[in-house]
Amino acid sequence: MSQLDDHRVAEADLASVRDRPQVVHDDSVALRQKRFEYEMLQMIEEALDRLNTGNFGACQACGRTIALLRLQAIPWAGIA
Ligand SMILES: [Zn+2]
Description:
Radius of gyration: 25 Å
Bound molecules: zinc ion
Strand content: under 5%
Largest sheet: none
């Protein structure tokens, strides 16, 4: 390998090190987005289960009826 090639390899290594914080940041954002989507899906599935068992609209903590406006805004709400 010539000296010029060595220099290009070193430059490429430096570029990957420089970009690393951005890559880590992007991975972190993507991971948070995936976790948010997973948790939303879980809440929706739980709401569907409550529909199927006749418990939809009842607070999971105290059993009180969840306000209709709240359910219209957040249909997967499980707490009044
Ligand atoms: Zn409650």
